[in-house]
Amino acid sequence: MKTYVAKPDDRERNWLLVDATGQTLGRLATQIADALRGKRKPSYTPHIDTGDFVVVVNAEKISVTGNKLHAKRYYRHSGYPGGLRSRTLDEMLDRRPEEVLRLAVKGMLPRNRLARKQLTKLKIYAGPDHPHVAQQPQPMEIQK
Which residues pair with 88 in a beta bridge? Predict the structure, then answer.
């Protein structure tokens, strides 16, 4: 029996729509990462991008468990001495709720060129409106 390897020209890319209202951050991010990589398809090949486009709406209404709103911190560094800055999850959700979900999904993808390309297929919006109506995104099934 020969091993199936997907080719870039015969892949099928779908558009999926996810409503993040009331969803737990990490549990939702794992399922989005699987859809971006194409692991939900029988034609999955690790070194070929067979994943779908994912549109996430209502990212500002995402939930977390425990005390993470005040305890979880996001760090960034300017590159200069003393340039380390940090924000709590609560502050990040106030300023840029899309970035919280994008960073969670990015952490669940491999660290290589293919994953950086797959992350560009993730479209996140804080509110319920998105500009991808013409692509007719289908609702993605979220396992509880």
Answer: 73
